[in-house]
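User: Can you write out an input/output pair for a complex, sequences first and structure second?

Assistant: Here is one pair. Inputs:
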Amino acid sequence: MLRYALRRVLWVFPSVLGVSLIAFFVLSLVPVEIPGDDSGAMRHFRFLDRPLFFNLEPSDVRSRSLQAVEALTNAPEGSAEAQLAQDELVRLGGAALPFVLPPFEDMTPAKRVRVALALAPIAERMGIEHRGEPNDPEQAVTFWNRFWQSHGTEFHAPTARSAVNRYARYGTEARALEITRLDTFALPAVMDAIYVPQSAEEMPPLRRLLAMASHVTGRKDRIGESTTPAEAKSAVERWRRWWLAFETDYVPLTGASRAAAFLLETRYGKWVFETVVLRLGKDALGRPLLDELVKRARVTAVVLLAGLALAYFLAVPLGIASAYRRGLLLDRGIAASVLVPYLLSPVLLGLLAFHLGLASVGPGLWASVLLAAALSAEPMRQQRTELMPVLVQEYIQAAIARGAGPLRVLVMHGLRNAAIPVITRATMELPVALTACFVLEQAFGLAGIGEATLQAIQHRDTGWLMTLSLCGTVWAVVAMVLTDVTYGLLDPRMRHTLMLLRRRRE
Amino acid sequence: MRHRDRFRKRLSHSFRMRTGALVLALFALAAVFAEFLAADAPVVAWGDRGVVVLPAVFRPAAYPSREAAEERHKNDTAIWPLVRYGPNSVSEPSVGMSLAHPLGTDMHGRDLYARLVHGARAALLLAVAALLFAVVFGSLLGAFAGYVGGFWDEVVARPAELVETFPAIVVVAVVRAVYPDQAVWSLAVAVAAVRWAEIARLVRAEVIRFGGAEFVEAARALGSSHLRVLRHHILPHALRPVIVTALFAVPSIVLLEAAVSFLGFGVRGSWGVMLAEAASGNWRAPLCAVLALGALVGASYLLADAVGEALDARVAAASRSAWWARGKKA
């Protein structure tokens, strides 16, 4: 039985994958408006410029810099396109140099000069500007050729990595120069080196690294002398999130990484990465999703589980009594008494209770009680219908004939066979009860998952809804396994069937 | 006497069945003929402009308000609906029952009777559309999985199991985030997306149960095609559980809609919206809505219960609590 349950639990993985794919596709239909001038960068940051599931042509620093050079040389001088291309080149910075400087020989002299002049801001950032040479049309090309001849060998990933490590450790001026001269080429190594500080002593290297990253990218997100480790942690998280979106702007894709980018450089791939590495990311209001989810799930789970337990505690005896007195006054009375709250639905129950002022005394308790009232009709009815065919069986009549009292007949003989579907129903009902739970949460003003979901719908917050779908999936699989296991535990015949099914499947 | 006749006899003698069917039929009629019962525009009008039939349905643009309709047909001969107010036309707020307003008006002056009648349309349209889709889709998939078996069975049965236990409210939330417009169809799609699995499971179970039966083998030996065997020999067995499940699904869908409307993303003009108005402390509309909801849910519940019981021959045979007396006698 345990092995069977474990095997079934493994279904969580394909299920989560399938549901996340479907939910991601559906939620990608939600239109996203990003206000402001830098909407292009923001779209890039939120992965919106990537294809949904497959990226046939992932862009990297190589393709981007070549495109920028192409655009720059083809656009008329002083035009808006030329300015855009130059900005792009400057943004890519040192990481683009290995793809821009070597092909200088193949260009016409005029183009060469234009590209070299466009690179001037990079030279300034790198601190290698020498007597205005990069800005002088006569000398810019020679300047860059000379630079590449003397420093080109430094543009290698291992060199950058050791330079960054040295800088983090010693933080001297000379080490800083090493990295500034690599410009954005050192960024992958810097992003690799940043870490979440645990104490104040661990702060200075991180401060240096973030200052360097901030210098080469122009992102003003540094930490100062007085920053606490907690603030530094969120700064690191922000940088990592940024790096998730912008990594390929500074790293060339080659071989295996290019093949992986086919799947990873997509909106879905990025989302999975964000979910796994960055703990679900942030919601529309900028709160960390995981913390929010755990906090709210506590409220919802208490109401839901207490309500469900109470509902079955009421429903099973009522169902038995109802089947016992089938068609008589008691049966009808019970049917009416559970149907009325069912019909009033959690909506009206919640509102009534709210107006009666029950919300002020233990809202969670009242929510559970009302949830139980609204939910008990279905299991009551099921208990009744399950028990009725059992009660006309011959072995029941035999028990009555032997002189067993009604209680003994009903509970010992009848219920034994009729309770199983009702009990297994309880596990299946968890997801169904969620709707009623949301309603009661709303009526009583409880800050549970329901409230957050309503906000998410209003803000069209896809992150929260994705998370909710995934939780729903895990929940559904767990409910499925629980149902099977309770079935197997309660009914030996069923255990046999389950095993048989398994063997046949194998 | 054939089984079908027995079933019919049991049903026609059942009080629950008759009550349930009658109430459901009344609601269905109200939903279909809502414009005859309550609307701003006349049912039929003839005069200078010729004959106009049901303008509220065919030319709503020409009738922006109640006053416009009255003005337009001032000199015409016209048959007006029972109540001359649409669900959105405003008159005096919070009026008691009168001839013009059979159930009075709500706090915004909208006629409650009109709102109820048009709300019935929203409720039934949602339930019927969702169930139709779920039954067709679920039956096809279930029959396919059960009949073909093996790999394809797994492909259908595993996701169906998952979908059946998936919280419906989450699907509704996702759909509403994509289509915030409070239309019936998008909610129907969301409901159907979780409902098909139950039908598929039932149909699949029946198909597997009878797939190896002797009469199926005989039909195959006589040269019937797979499709014919499935349609004529196997699927009729699945009809009953599907009918019972679908009937029981009606109240649960209607209640789900009420809950979703309360949360603020249901269907425009539905009973759930009326229910939610209780939040502002005005009980007139919610009371009407809860009575209508109760009648509809109760009726489908009664009908489903009666049909389900009539289909189970063993239970039907044992009347009242005779089982106890019989046991004593034995």
